[in-house]
């Protein structure tokens, strides 16, 4: 991100790259800001934003031009539970209206609710790929499938504990 810009300047810059008119940028930025509870009209620079605010600004920038294809890398990182819930509902709505969304996430429960297809990677190797019903046919849920496929977490006290 361009940390020296205000949120409004950043979204205007991104919107103009996508060929959006200034009025449309302002309207969509306001709508997305309201939805994600961010006010981009202030004078604070993005470099001064919290991690969650930076994530919300990046999400607004990614959605500003109403993409048909959306790539999101760990979109829930840095968001509080309310922001995460709002984002999940927004992504479900986008998905239901035809947007193709590719998400990387360690939040397996959220991925299971949002995604219709899964690709399970472990150290760069594809371990499973396919529609949710195919991948999860023998598993109770995605987390159970992941742990059974990749391995159980190691736990237990150590001698010094």
Order of helices and strands: HHHEHEHEEHH
**Share of helical residues:** 40-55%
Strand order of the largest sheet: 1-2
- Based on secondary structure, the structural category is alpha+beta
State the end-to-end distance. 43 Å
By DSSP (H or I, 4+ residues per run), the number of helices equals 7
Q: How would you name the oligomeric state of the polypeptide chains in this document?
A: single chain
- The coarse silhouette is globular
Low-confidence stretches: none
Mean pLDDT comes to 88
Described by strand count, sense and barrel closure, the largest sheet is: 2 strands, parallel
Radius of gyration computed on alpha carbons: 19 Å
Total count of strands: 4
């Amino acid at each position: 991100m361009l940390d020296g810009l205000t949120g409004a300047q950043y979204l205007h810059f991104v919107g103009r790259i996508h060929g959006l008119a200034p009025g449309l940028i302002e309207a969509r930025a306001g709508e997305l800001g309201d939805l994600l509870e961010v006010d981009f009209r202030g004078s604070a620079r993005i470099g001064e934003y919290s991690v969650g605010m930076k994530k919300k600004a990046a999400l607004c920038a990614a959605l500003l031009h109403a993409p048909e294809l959306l790539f999101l890398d760990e979109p829930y990182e840095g968001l509080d539970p309310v922001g995460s819930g709002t984002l999940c509902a927004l992504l479900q709505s986008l998905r239901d209206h035809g947007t193709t969304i590719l998400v990387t996430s360690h939040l397996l429960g959220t991925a299971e609710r949002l995604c219709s297809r899964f690709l399970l990677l472990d150290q760069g190797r594809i371990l499973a790929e396919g529609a949710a019903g195919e991948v999860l046919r023998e598993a109770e849920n995605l987390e159970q499938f992941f742990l059974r496929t990749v391995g159980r977490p190691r736990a237990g006290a150590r001698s010094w504990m």
